[in-house]
């Protein structure tokens, strides 16, 4: 050994230590920088992703609230069905992704294996229905129509069906009490879409992927209240999807119940009478076309006159809303939406619009008085009226001499209204007005036409008032097409296009004349006309039509009543309204509707009516019948159905008979009356929150049938009746009362 130090070796060691220190410090610096980037710069994003990856939720659907009629009878509720579901998580743990189990399940359920496998696959942009658009951790329903035997097979052989459950669950049901379908009023449900989930994300009522939402009718209008709030259980899972613990759980909250103003018994009668009226119209010959009426669609509204509440609303053609429960099949969907379906999903009471014909004359009468014409003045009801070489005829060229506006309403005299409208057109400046008063058009807007009534149903249409503003806008939108196709000496359509090209934006004399009797470009809906006639009945108040009457919490402790609301007053003085009321009573006793109300107890229940028959280019005439008593307003329309009193009159009379218990001889039997006066109270709410309901008749229509067999013998007698004045002109001496009775009652005899 030596005491001499080894200087060279020591230097090398020191150098190595410095290098190692630098490397370590560099690694520590890199690690620290990376940690800063992950935890500080990207911390929120990764925390969010981590939460999404490791916390999954399972939804317990809330029981949807019931929709009840005014007496508490369920129109839509829930029933317990055996639902077979599959856990996708459990299936994916199997070597074959559960194909063997699903194949075996298909055999038990009587389904095709491919059909079952398609139901458990997840929806995406490239995967067509059927598929599952809910959470992959949610049990996926395979069928809600399993039999007890099938459910027992699955549960008793659980080892053969891992991941498969068969349990009772609440499923929506549309009950049709007493055969009252009420389809277009109730609507239907279908699964929520991704777009709806996104839109509702930050609202008070967000959607979950498992939610069923209302697509139309009351189901849509009151969806938030009916839907309730689904329960959510959150589970902690590892990166393989295995559950490692439960995070938290929120219990499901059932939806509220909706009490409506619909009376299921009256609803059934209204649906039946509308359908029978359409069937009868198809047997009648159209004198204009030489073929039977098509009667392809129709609607009827029964409304409380003093509140605007809807007692019954029927639309035809119709459908079964239960077709949507559990998912609608492609075949059923095509039947409801295809070109040959005639679109039964449409509620023609609120979404069907047509020219009103003579039931519009109440508007023209009010406008004439506002313009300064005396309601009791004398006006020539001549057989025709000529303007610029064009002749506008009265029905069957009837000439009744000088009559009042009231009598013109009774007889539905067109030429009186032609003269009044033409005179005002000239006073306003004719084709070149400066400051037109436009009384006839302003009156329509004041009556609530050309806009929504405010009914609590979605997608109501506005109809149309063809005033000067509308004509200008319509001309600007269509003039290029008119000018391209119009011909001065061409066909009828080409001549019209030619005229519209030149002056389609101007209010011509013929436009005003046709408008005065509800023809031309005027469009209304049945709910609009029911609102107007109810207002005439109640003294002039235009109510927002309503179907919802109250929203009742599941426990029955909170009741939010939906009070009637007004959106205006009729532009008529009390004096004029009283005279119009008397004239409309005359329509039912000595005018165009008299032959339909023979034997009616007018002294006890004053009846008022107005008939209407609207001409539609290229189609058969539209039948309208508008009526009211002190309690109710009823309006019925049938597309391509013929005349108002001929096609719709008998059905409307039968509905009134059912409401008040009126027999053929005019006697009133209160025991047979379904609803002699509107229901003012809500059904009784029990201590447990359930709502009491009365016993439901199997079919109110059959309960109301006559028992003497007299009507049966008359079932094949005339439907559109003797020279029914096309609702433009009355026969001064209506047909024999006895014959009227047998014709009027024929529909009920077929029940």
UniProtKB/TrEMBL annotation:
EC number: 3.4.16.4
UniProt keyword annotations, A-Z: Carboxypeptidase, Cell inner membrane, Cell membrane, Cell shape, Cell wall biogenesis/degradation, Hydrolase, Membrane, Peptidoglycan synthesis, Protease, Transmembrane, Transmembrane helix
Keyword Protease: yes
Main location as per UniProt: membrane
Stretches that traverse the bilayer: 17-37
Entries under Gene3D superfamilies matching the protein: DD-peptidase/beta-lactamase superfamily (3.40.710.10), Penicillin-binding protein 2a (Domain 2) (3.90.1310.10)
Domain Penicillin-binding protein transpeptidase stretches: 298-656
Extent of Basic residues compositional bias: 741-751
Subcellular location: Cell membrane; Membrane
Polar residues: compositionally biased ranges: 726-739
InterPro entries: Beta-lactam/transpept, Beta-lactam/transpept-like, PBP_dimer, PBP_dimer_sf, PCN-bd_Tpept, Penicillin-binding_protein_2
Residue ranges of every copy of the Penicillin-binding protein dimerisation domain listed in the record: 60-246
Highest taxon of the lineage: Bacteria
Family: Belongs to the transpeptidase family.
Official protein name in the record: Penicillin-binding protein 2
């Amino acid at each position: 050994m030596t005491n001499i130090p080894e200087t060279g070796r020591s230097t090398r060691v020191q150098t190595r230590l410095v290098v190692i220190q630098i490397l370590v410090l560099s690694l520590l610096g890199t690690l620290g920088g990376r940690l800063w980037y992950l935890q500080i710069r990207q911390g929120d994003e990764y925390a969010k992703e981590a939460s999404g990856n490791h916390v999954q939720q399972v939804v317990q659907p809330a029981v949807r609230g019931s929709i009840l009629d005014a007496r508490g009878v369920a129109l839509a509720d829930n029933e317990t069905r055996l639902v077979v579901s599959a856990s996708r998580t459990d299936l994916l743990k199997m070597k074959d992704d559960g194909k063997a189990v699903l194949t075996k399940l298909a055999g038990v359920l009587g389904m095709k294996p491919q059909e079952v496998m398609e139901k458990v696959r997840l929806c995406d942009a490239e995967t067509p229905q059927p598929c599952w658009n809910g959470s992959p951790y949610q049990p996926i329903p395979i069928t809600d129509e399993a039999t007890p035997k099938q459910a027992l097979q699955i549960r008793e052989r659980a080892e053969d069906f891992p991941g498969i459950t068969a349990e009772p669950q609440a499923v929506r049901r549309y009950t049709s009490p007493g055969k009252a379908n009420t389809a277009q009023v109730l609507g239907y449900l279908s699964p929520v879409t991704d777009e709806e989930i996104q839109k509702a994300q930050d609202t008070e009522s967000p959607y979950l992927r498992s939610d069923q939402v209302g697509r139309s009718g009351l189901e849509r209008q009151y969806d938030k209240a009916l839907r309730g709030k689904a329960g959510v259980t959150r589970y902690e899972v590892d990166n393989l999807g295995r559950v490692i613990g439960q995070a938290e759980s929120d219990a499901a909250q059932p939806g509220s119940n909706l009490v409506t103003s619909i009376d299921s018994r009256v609803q059934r009668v209204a649906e039946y009478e509308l359908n029978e009226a359409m069937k009868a119209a198809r047997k009648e010959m159209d004198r204009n076309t030489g073929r039977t009426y098509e009667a392809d669609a129709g609607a009827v509204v029964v409304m409380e006159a003093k509140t605007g509440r809807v007692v019954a609303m029927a639309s035809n053609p119709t459908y079964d809303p239960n077709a949507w429960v559990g998912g609608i099949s492609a075949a059923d969907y095509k039947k409801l939406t295809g070109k040959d379906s005639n679109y039964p999903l449409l509620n023609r009471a609120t979404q069907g619009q047509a020219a009103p014909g003579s039931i519009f004359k109440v508007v023209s009468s009010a406008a004439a008085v506002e313009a300064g014409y005396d309601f009791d003045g004398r006006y020539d009801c001549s057989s025709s009226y000529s303007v610029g070489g064009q002749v506008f005829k009265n029905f069957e060229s009837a000439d009744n001499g000088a009559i009042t506006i009231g009598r013109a309403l009774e007889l539905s005299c067109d030429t009186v209204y032609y003269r009044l409208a033409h005179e005002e057109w000239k006073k306003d400046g004719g084709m070149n007005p400066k400051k037109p008063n436009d009384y006839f058009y302003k009156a329509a807007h004041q009556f609530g036409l050309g806009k929504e009534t405010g009914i609590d149903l979605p997608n109501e249409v506005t109809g149309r008032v063809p005033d000067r503003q509308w004509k200008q806008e319509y001309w600007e939108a269509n003039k290029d097409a008119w000018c391209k196709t119009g011909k001065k000496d061409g066909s009828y359509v080409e001549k019209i296009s030619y005229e519209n090209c030149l002056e389609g934006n101007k209010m011509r004399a013929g436009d005003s004349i046709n408008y005065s009797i509800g023809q031309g470009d005027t469009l209304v809906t049945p709910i609009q006309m029911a609102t107007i006639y109810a207002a005439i009945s109640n003294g002039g108040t235009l109510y927002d039509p309503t179907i919802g009457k109250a929203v009742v919490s599941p426990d029955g402790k909170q009741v939010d009543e939906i009070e009637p609301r007004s959106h205006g007053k009729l532009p008529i003085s009390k004096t004029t309204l009283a005279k119009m009321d008397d004239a409309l009573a005359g329509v039912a006793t000595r005018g165009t509707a008299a032959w339909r109300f023979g034997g009616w107890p007018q002294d006890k229940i004053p009846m008022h009516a107005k008939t209407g028959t609207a001409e539609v280019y290229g189609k058969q005439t539209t039948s309208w019948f508008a009526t009211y008593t002190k309690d109710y307003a009823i309006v019925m329309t049938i597309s391509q159905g013929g005349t108002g009193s001929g096609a719709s009159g008998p059905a409307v009379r039968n509905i009134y008979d059912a409401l008040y218990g009126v027999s053929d001889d005019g006697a009133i039997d209160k025991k047979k009356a379904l609803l002699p006066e509107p229901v003012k109270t809500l059904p009784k709410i029990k201590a447990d929150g359930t709502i009491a309901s009365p016993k439901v008749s199997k079919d109110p229509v059959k309960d109301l049938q006559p028992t003497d067999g007299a009507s049966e013998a008359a079932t094949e007698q005339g439907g559109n009746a003797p020279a029914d004045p096309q609702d433009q002109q009355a026969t001064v001496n209506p047909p024999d009362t006895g014959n009227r009775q047998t014709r009027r009652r024929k529909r009920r005899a077929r029940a």
